[in-house]
Design a protein that fits this description.
The protein is α/β, with parallel strands linked by helices and 275 residues long. The radius of gyration is 25 Å and the shape is elongated. Helices cover 44% and strands 18% of the residues. The strands form 2 sheets. Strands 3-2-4-1-5 form a 5-stranded parallel beta sheet, with helices on both faces.
Length: 275
């Protein structure tokens, strides 16, 4: 396969080497250079597939210094693949500044999609998949972590987090405190690997499971807040105003209460104040 000049964002296996796509193998074998998060780790993957393409380290500690060098090579017409240690690059991994700079310079940026722990965990969780928000890693310090979780407590979309083996138990405990002990969740460990573990249940009930098998990298999928959002006063007032102009008072009040979930007494008091 002939690889055209440009930047290639290549997804690599999150565990099972069989998940590397044929296109990804061709691109990695055909580019001029592979920018890898950890060249030693990626070297094993490349050796397994007989790929001898040169590598250069490209990680969170050096990406801002290394991006100009990579950009210069791209501008000279070379082809470069970016890979992370596992999964899809840029998802809680380095690469964003380089992609932005390449696009700004008019250099083609190509996606070579494949494994992603986020999507893999969501797909087997049994938790709604139609709307979700990926939150990445939570803050390491407990106070900051709890603050972030409190901010997300009323989020109606499914939430997805990455977590380390050292903090998974504390994170689940804090989630149970912020979201409610009975909020449904899924914890997935070592996805696609030999000791893959996926457990579902209430947040509080999942804590003992995490304590018993805390090794490995984790993905936590949490159901969104099932309670309907409280209507804002401005929205409530606007709806009531429109309905009162078209309907009798009692009917306007009743319909506004049904549509917004607000109490009928609250809406009725607001209606009387407007008359």
């Amino acid at each position: 396969m002939r690889v055209e000049p440009g930047l290639y964002i290549v997804a690599t296996p999150i565990g099972n080497l069989g998940d590397l796509s044929p296109r990804a193998r061709d691109v990695l074998a055909g580019v001029n250079l592979i920018a890898a998060e950890d060249t030693r780790h990626s070297g094993k993957l490349l050796a397994h597939f007989g790929i001898a393409t040169p590598q250069i380290s490209f990680h969170e500690h050096n990406e801002r210094e290394r991006s100009p060098e990579l950009l210069a090579r791209l501008e000279r017409g070379e082809s470069i693949a970016v890979i992370s240690d596992a999964g899809t690059p840029l998802i809680s991994d380095p690469g964003l500044p380089l992609v932005r700079d390449a696009r700004a310079a008019g250099i083609p940026v190509h996606a070579v999609p494949g494994p992603s722990a986020v999507v893999a965990a969501l797909s087997v969780s049994g938790i709604p998949t139609d709307r979700f928000a990926f939150e990445g890693f939570l803050p390491q310090r407990q106070a900051a972590r709890r603050k972030r979780l409190d901010e997300l407590a009323c989020e109606p979309r499914t939430l997805i987090f990455y977590e380390s083996p050292h903090r998974i138990v504390a994170a689940l405990q804090d989630m149970a405190a912020a979201f409610g002990a009975e909020r449904q969740a899924c914890i997935a460990r070592e996805l696609t690997k030999l000791y893959e573990t996926v457990r579902t249940g209430a947040l509080a009930a999942l804590v003992p499971a995490a304590e018993a098998e805390a090794r490995g990298e984790w993905v936590v999928v949490v159901a969104g807040d099932p309670t309907p959002p409280v209507p804002q006063a401005a929205d409530l007032d606007r709806m009531l105003t429109v309905l009162m102009a078209e309907l009798p008072l009692k009917q306007a009040v009743s319909l506004t209460a049904k549509l917004t979930g607000a109490s009928r007494n609250e809406v009725y008091a607001l209606a009387l104040a407007r008359k």
